[in-house]
Design goal:
By secondary structure, the protein is an all-alpha fold. Helices cover 60% and strands 1% of the residues.
Length: 541
Amino acid sequence: MGFVVLVLLCALTGLVFGDSKPKPCSDIRHFYNSKGFNLNGVPQTVISGEHLRVCSQGYTCCTSGMEENLLNLSRREFETQVKESGRTLQASLNGQFKSFDDFFLELLNRSEASLQTSFQTGFGPLFSQIAKAFQDLFSDLRRYYRGSNVNLEEALNEFWARLLERLFKALNPQYIIGEEYLECVAKQSETLKPFGDTPRELKTKITRTVIAARTFAQGLVISGEAVRKVSQVSLSTECVHAVMKMTYCPHCSGVAFAKPCSNYCKNVMKGCLANQADLDSEWRNLADAMLEVVDKLSRPYSVDSVVLSLPKRIAEAILYMQDNLNTFNNKVFQACGSPTQSSKTEDQIKRGRNTAEEVSGTPGAQLEKVLSDVSRMLRDIMQYWVHLPRKLCVDRESGPSEADRCWNGMSVDRYLPEVMGDGLASQINNPEVEIDITKPDMTVRKQIMQLKIMINRLKYAINGNDVDFQDTSDDISGSGSGMCADDQCSRDPRLTAPNTDKPKVYAYPSENKKVVNGRSSQNLPCVSLYLLSLVTVLLRR
């Protein structure tokens, strides 16, 4: 019996005194200070962690003040990451918009400059009398493209009407032609077709091309705005706690060397970015619609060939009228009566020449590059919102070889729960972030509605139609899949998600695994008391 007592006393002595030296907190002190925090109040050695709200309440090197500071740091760093990722995407969208915008406006400038040069050469004095109509046409095209409230078809009809008025007077200097007579002439134009089929053919091509260009540019702008606004959505308290637990709790627990398990990180990120992931469906639909518009900008007639061919086509229309002037005049005189002869004698304007440059119908090299670049970008960003959680985990998570030696939120071991799906509804059983799936973020819902409106505009533009949809972004109570506005969810108990307890995560140690330093020592007081009691009982015997 004495021998047994001696052995137990030796064991007790080894446990109590052999490992009695408190574990130092030098690593966390250095880390904490490197983050810009003051070391006042930071423990030199481990302390009991009952005061912690987020991290494990075992032995720790973190005070409640340190935990609060690291919690706020977690929020700032994660929000910065999301915003930076969004800014990168927005910059890409803005860059593509600028490239296309510069290209299209340069097309209009080149076309107008070509018209002025060729008409001055080919039509001489006549150009000065009809120049204002051309200026107004290109001004209307620019204003429409820029988003002004211009009816494109009416603008084109108005151009041909003004051109007819000026040409009819200029080509008939022997007559006195007043406003009332010109109104009568205008009424005959639809039947008599003074410019042949050019107005109708140009209207089809110009409207399809400029509508597609404007809507495409709007799509790039709306996409960038959606990214900016959604990337600024504030994080929930539960999300910040989960990020803190994953990022800085290992430091407090003395296992800073362990990176978060890959699936653990994905579940945290999917929970935090659940609302943002709900953009995925409409985001992909928008990219698909924009790619269809890209195709329309190059086929069946490319945007550059349509815009740059304007001078030649308009010159053809004017020459058609000059060649058929006598026939047109006779029919007009029959319908409107003969105008009064002028006392002034002016020379008849000679027939002009079409000196405008012939334009190929195939896309030019610059257009091909612009459309190729934007198409590549649209395909690359198509799954941005559902790939974002994985992207943010790349620099955080452990590698495949560390699956048994990673931080799982409680200890250094394998992470067992499965990875959640994408979007808000899929997070109902997320083991890392508690989410009320009946309360979607309203900023995200509004952007989803904006994307839907833009998609409809793009679909109309594909068919050459322009339409202004009423902005219904504020009336979104029915938007989303199974989602509802706050007041509706609170009133209708049927819309409340079932109350499911957060699944417990058990970390099973691997066989022959070394125990992590600092973990087993937490049980020393209990072991010591047990051995002291046993020795006392034995001595009494």
